[in-house]
Design goal:
This protein is an alpha+beta fold. The protein has one helix at about 25-35; strands at about 10-15, 40-45, 45-50, 55-60. It is about 15% helix and about 30% strand. The protein has a two-stranded parallel sheet with strand order 1-2. A two-stranded antiparallel ribbon has the order 3-4. It is elongated and about 50 Å long.
Length: about 60
């Protein structure tokens, strides 16, 4: 006999960045139209590139 476990209440993390989503509002509208916006936790991410080392870092 199998037991069903309830779905997790944890939200999926959605990282929006100007480079990946030039217009994140369109993504938000899409999520609301599909009625799945409550399943996501949006976090804005900005990518900074260091000129001296050529590497980058992420800030939230």
């Amino acid at each position: 006999m199998t037991t069903l476990t309830p779905p997790s209440t944890a939200k999926l993390r959605l990282f929006t960045s100007p480079a990946a989503f030039p217009n994140p509002q369109r993504l938000r509208i899409f999520l609301h139209e599909k009625r799945i916006a409550d399943r996501f936790d949006e976090q804005s991410v900005t990518w900074h590139r260091s000129a001296s080392s050529g590497s980058g870092s992420i800030s939230r």
